[in-house]
Give the backbone structure.
Amino acid sequence: MRLERGCVAATGGWPFRFRVGRDRTPDGVGGDFWQHGLVNTPNDPDEPLQLLMGLEVSAVSFVRDYVELHFDGPVLRALSDPVGVYGGREWRFPAPGSLELMRCYIGKTVDGCELDPDRILALDFGEHRFVIPLDSDSSGSPEAAHMVGVDESGRASGLGGMWIW
């Protein structure tokens, strides 16, 4: 199934959530379904960044023109070029030296987050910070970041939700 990019632009900057699953009746009849809807406020108890609190970064992946942070399950994808501070040193992807500093986040635990839907999505790791710019000038497209939740087995899956900023 293809997700239309236009639906993200219609959200006015708030994250859009998609959920995939199976709808089964007691007699076993049913099929796949997609649910979607807005995450209405930054204080929504279902706020996706809260799912990352207390989780450790297990991998930093560089995929052609974007970056992913993996958390032994959930995946946060930066489609706009991330920036940050690690050990007091500022970095900006893909500038020289940024890949080395970004790999240092592996093993660090998320202890804070910030979401300003028109400006930034940020994760804090003690004195270190990882920021994904969300403004339209930085992303160059309607989507600046994705987060994929986990299914019942703990694996990254649309069954656990997908958020798009």
In short: Residues 6-40+47-164 form one domain.
